[in-house]
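Ticket #4471: structure output looks truncated?

Reporter: J.K.
Steps to reproduce: submitted the chain below (304 residues) through the standard prediction queue, then opened the result file.
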Amino acid sequence: MLFRSVIAFGAVILLAPGLLFSQGGGVGIAGGSFSSSMSSSGSGGSVSSSGNGTQTTFTYNYPPGGTVFVIAGAPYSGHMSSQNVRTLASGAHLNMQTNDQPMTYRDSMGRTRTDAAMSQAPMMALAAANFKPRIVRLPEISDPVAGFRYVLDDTNRIAHRITIQARQNQAQAQARAAFDARSPVAQATPHAMEDGVTSTSESLGTQSMFGLTVTGQRNTTTYPPGTYQGNDGLLTSVNETWRSDQYGLMLLSKNSQPDGSESTMTMKDFTAAEPDPTLFMVPAGYQIVDETGQFTITLPASAK
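Returned output as attached by the reporter:
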C-alpha cells in the first residue's frame, strides 16, 4: 500500500488513513511502504522520501549556489511549539494536537543549524500511552561565512556539502526603521475583500519576551452570513502575532477560527546566548561529499 503526505511549516497534515506526519526533516517507519514530500523552509530546495519497513530513502533537491539570507549579530537557540485546541458548544475543550518543531541555532556570524526530525506511525499506535515513535535526525547547517550548506547523515557519518551564496537580510533593517516610525498603537483600518468579507489590521504596540522587544499585530477577518461554510450569522477569525524585528523571529502566534478551533505557536527554550560553535562544524571523522545536484540518504528503519 502506498501512502503520500505533504509537510507544511508548523503544521501536521493527515493524507492517508492511519498515518500521521509531523513537520521536520526525517522519517521513522512503523511498517508498510510510503512516499512523501516536504518543503524545507527557507532552504531554497525540497526533500522527498520513500521507504518500506526496513529502510527510508530521502531525496534532496538543493540547487548549488542558492541564496541564503543572513541575520548577523543576533544569536539565539530555540524552537517553536504549536498546540491546537477546539472548544465545543458545551464549553468542553478538545486538545487536538501538540507539535514541537526541531531546535534551531544561530550564531553572531549568521550561521544556522536546524536539528531536523520527523516521526511516522499508525494512528492506533500513537494513541497508546506508552508508544514512542521512531525518530530520524538529519541536521542541516547553513554556513554563509564559508559559503556552504551541509546535510549531516549521522548514521553513515557523511556530510553532504552544497554551495550557497550569502545575502544580507535587508528586511531586518527596514523592519526596524518602520517600527521606529510608527506609533505604539495604530488605528484599525478595515479592508474590503470578496463577498463582503472584511479584514482589519491593527498594531498592538510592543512588549518584552525573553528579554527582546517584540511588536504585536492583530488581523481580524469578519464573515457576513453565507460567506463561511453556510453561516447564518456574523463570524470572525482572529490572528495575533508577536515578532522581533531585530532577530527576524516570530515568538508568539495565536489564531482563532469561527468553528471554535484555536492554534497557538510559541517559542520554547529560547536563549540569546551564543551557541556552542561546534554545532556549526562538520564532526570529526565525517566524510565530506560535494553535491552538485540531486542526492539521496538511505537509512535503516532503526536509525535515530
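Triage note (M.O.): checked the attachment and the full C-alpha cell line is present. The chain has two helices and 23 strands.
Status: closed, working as intended.
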